[in-house]
Amino acid sequence: MNILITNVYTHSNKGDAAIVCALIYEIDRAFGKSGNSTLIHTADPTNDIGKYNVEVRANLLYIILTKAKEKGSFFGTLHIIFNLFFLTLFLIAHKFTKINLSRLASRDLKDYLSGCLNADISIACGGGYLRSRSSSPTDTLILLVTCLEFLVPKMLNKKTYLYSQSIGPIHGRTQKLILKYSLKKVDLILSREEISTVFIRDLDVGTECIQVADPVFSLFGSDLVRGKGNDVKNSTMRVGITVRDWFDDVELYRKYLKSVAKTIDFLSENYSATIYYVPQVIASNFGDDDRRSAELLRQYIKSKDSLVIIDEDLEVSQIIEVCGSMDYFIGTRMHSNIFALISGVPTIAIEYEPKTRGIMRSLDLEKWVVPINDLTDGKDLLNEYLEKLIVSETQYRSNLKSVLPKIKKKSQSAIDEIKKSINA
Q1: Which of 11, 38, 348, 378 qualifies as a cystine partner to 51, CB 3.0-4.6 A?
Q2: Are the CB atoms for 55 and 38 separated by under 8 Å?
Q3: In degrees, to the nearest 5, what angle opens at C-alpha 334 toward C-alphas 25 and 244?
Q4: What DSSP state is assigned to residue 65?
Q5: Edge-to-edge strand list for the sheet holding 347-351
Q6: pLDDT tens-digit readout, 241-261
Q7: Which residues are registered as beta bridge partners of 40?
Q8: CA angle 147, 152, 156 (to 5 degrees)
Q9: What is the pLDDT of residues 183-232, one digit of tens each?
Q10: How far apart are CA 295 and CA 244, in angstroms?
């Protein structure tokens, strides 16, 4: 069976890379390695080739949008219009005449369409990409191309599944129409938390939706997460953190970093702790590199030597090993929190999107979620949470030990539901 994995972002986003690794791991578990072939469509083909031990090709985000940026404003706009027009023409020709127009496409688009045509099933990898931050034309275009990535295989009569998704929020009537139409077309939607499940049901798309869990929880206890890891020096207390540039308002962004900096100083002064920034997203080619935030964070810290910025491009298994070596974890990037949680590390999650609260709620850990906007008022809120966490450490670890096996089964049920649908 030829399995196509769509909507992959970049291996430089270690949370997304972990989702892809987990999905491949689960495909091998459910369908077996023998006689099956897996192909990935990614937005970062140059970087991702050779990273997953399966074939990798460019996806529509790369072919249409990334290539357009390289051409400048005027020719970039023409590039987008031409590719969307050709894609529409190709789909119409295939539906009504069975004529294959892909030979007229660019090399990347030809390879993309070939992957879609040769697939037996298509699985949109898990994540939180079916959402937007505004109703702007740019965000609407990104949502459209993102949906086309899994719609094209479906329009070519391939069974298509949305694997472990966080969906929403979206903005404006046009985005709602795009998303609703797209979700109506797929064969099965697997949501990864309750907030997304409710959003999908309120959208009234008619497609069956089953709530599962984040794919990375399926790696709990697996061989994939038992790498050697990075060499983390010992200290009285080790605390891992991730930060990110989220705010459009520069002043709010600085206040958020200053709040985290206060907590680092608090840990250093009261516990002689060493705090480790764990590399999570280092996709500088997408303008998405958390190491810049980490360096800016250091400027606001009094005890600068207490922060160790790990800036290497680590494998997923190594990052999980690093997160697992911490005593506590404070994460803005949700998958850094999951890496720590599957290793049994008590974690405080900084919420910048609904998925954070939804995933933590599924673990009965919602009380350890801090909204990112609450860290912009100058209060020492994180310090309060951290003191409570240290006092509650034993109970926290005990609860995790109890819930993780259940969440792993729920995560694994996603591929089982897909297999059931294929055989129906």
Answers
A1: 11
A2: yes
A3: 125
A4: I
A5: 307-309, 274-277, 238-242, 328-331, 347-351, 369-371
A6: 999 999 989 999 999 999 999
A7: 5, 56
A8: 150
A9: 999 999 999 999 999 999 999 999 999 999 999 999 887 765 553 344 45
A10: 11
Residue 384 identity (one-letter amino acid): E
Contact (Cβ atoms closer than 8 angstroms) between residue 199 and residue 211: no
The span from the CA of 257 to the CA of 211, in Å, is 34
Q: What is the pLDDT along the chain (424 residues), one digit of tens a residue?
A: 999 999 999 999 999 999 999 999 999 999 988 878 999 999 999 999 999 999 999 999 999 999 999 999 999 999 999 999 999 999 999 989 988 888 888 999 999 999 999 999 999 999 999 999 999 999 999 999 999 999 999 999 999 999 999 999 999 999 999 999 999 999 999 999 999 999 999 999 999 999 999 999 998 877 655 533 444 545 589 999 999 999 989 999 999 999 999 999 999 999 999 999 998 999 988 888 999 999 999 999 998 999 999 988 998 989 999 999 999 999 999 999 999 999 999 999 999 998 999 999 999 999 999 999 999 877 788 999 999 999 999 999 999 999 999 999 999 999 999 999 998 7
Report whether 322 contacts 314 (CB < 8 A).
yes
Q: Check residue 143 and give left, alpha or beta (phi > 0: left; psi -120 to 50: alpha).
A: alpha
Render 185-243 in DSSP notation, one character per residue.
HSSEEEESSHHHHHHHHHHT--S-EEE---GGGGGTT-GGG------PPP-S-EEEEE-
pLDDT averaged over the chain?
92
Backbone angles phi, psi at 128, to 5 degrees: -125, 40
Q: Buried b vs exposed e over 155-183: b needs ≥16 C-beta within 10 Å?
A: bbebbbbbbbbbbbebbeeebeebbeebb
Neighbours of 287 (CB within 10 A): 8
For residue 241, which of 313, 166, 287, 298 has the smallest C-alpha distance?
Answer: 298
Please provide the size of the chain in residues.
424
The 10 Å Cβ neighbour count of residue 30 is: 16
Two tokens, residue 238? 């080790």
Give the chain's largest Cα–Cα span. 73
